[in-house]
Amino acid sequence: MYTGLQHAHSYIAFAALILLIVASINALIGMSSNKEFKDGDRKLSLFALIFTHTQLLIGIVLYFVSPLVQSFSVAMKDSTLRLYALEHPLINIIAVVLITIGWSRHKKMTTSKAQFKSIAIMYALGTLLILSRIPWNAWL
User: Fold this and answer.
1) I need a surface site. Which of 24, 66, 106, 118 has the fewest CB within 10 A?
2) Computed from CA positions of residues 37, 38, 40, 45, in that sequence, does the dihedral angle turn out positive or negative?
3) Using N-to-C axis directions, what is the helix angle for 2-33 and 112-132, rounded to 10°?
4) Whole-angstrom distance, CA of residue 79 vs CA of residue 23
């Protein structure tokens, strides 16, 4: 089960990152070109949100069954273990919260430019946070 969760967490991460990057770029283009916020823009942002939340849920389950984070006090002394036990989960939870706020705020906006701006800023910030805490040496 643990190995299957690791693989799912890794593969869904690729899809989530691609969708987040595409949704952020789409929102930046839409905001700067004053185009209308259409159903395709909404669906792209929604799929990025869904994959990000799915990734978070798998990550939370993986966190609690992972042998890497079972001894939390030892993890604080080792930078690799600290990344897995504290930095990666905490920063990614913050990133998912920002992405969710961007999605929620865009629904309350009345103009297309404001909708694109909400998604562009919050999704881009969330993407940058996620990229900053990926364990690259173990992932690629």
Assistant:
1) 66
2) positive
3) 140
4) 32
Residue length of the chain: 140
The pLDDT tens digits of the residues spanning 89-118 come to 999 999 999 999 999 999 999 999 999 999
Burial string for 74-84 (b: 16+ CB within 10 Å, else e) reads: ebeeeeebbbb
Q: Are the beta carbons of 61 and 25 closer than 8 angstroms?
A: no
Q: pLDDT tens for residues 5-51?
A: 999 999 999 999 999 999 999 999 999 999 999 999 999 999 999 99
Structure tokens at 43: 């669906």
- Report which residue type is found at 65: V
User: Quick check: pTM over 0.85?
Assistant: yes
80: its two tokens? 């690799």
